[in-house]
Design goal:
The protein is an alpha/beta fold and about 180 residues long. It contains six helices and six strands. Strands 2-3-1-4-5-6 form a six-stranded mixed beta sheet, with helices on both faces. Strand 4, helix 2 and strand 5 form a beta-alpha-beta unit. Helix 1 crosses helix 4 and helix 1 packs across helix 5.
Amino acid sequence: MERNLMVAGFGGQGVMTLGKFLAEAACDATDKNVTFFPSYGAEQRGGTANVTVILSDEKISSPVLDKYDVVIALNQQSLDKFGPKVKPGGILIYDTDGIHNPCHRDDITIYPIDAMGATLAIGNSKAYNMIVMGALLEVMPYKLPMENVIKGLKKSLPERHHKLIPMNEQAIEKGRELVK
């Protein structure tokens, strides 16, 4: 069995970090093969960025995909590009902030979330990607235990930032609430 997801947005939204945390958590929580495949323009902050994460029972031959089980789109450009690439029966999560043309498909489950509003409510702009992560963790078809997500955060964050882990946990819980 292979499961994959795409996270796409602008540089500076935490797309790469979200993908890295997810891949680290999946490595710790499962006995599956995991790939993390980032893609971004030369201008990291403000340019387009996306990351593919694949979990598989088999060896992963290529991280390049045409269709995805789950797509997270954090801006209109990403929604336009990757929304149509969700497999039938798949999941689309998108932040409603700045979306003028939402995706309308009957063959997938769509979760529009107000991640930016939730970020403002928490009062820390760096929590944005963890709010999105929380929404993902709540609805994705393969469950990752929270303790493995925290291990992924600890592995990925420099030790000097470990003091931010409780804030990240709070943001993840806020994201879970957005899709309940």
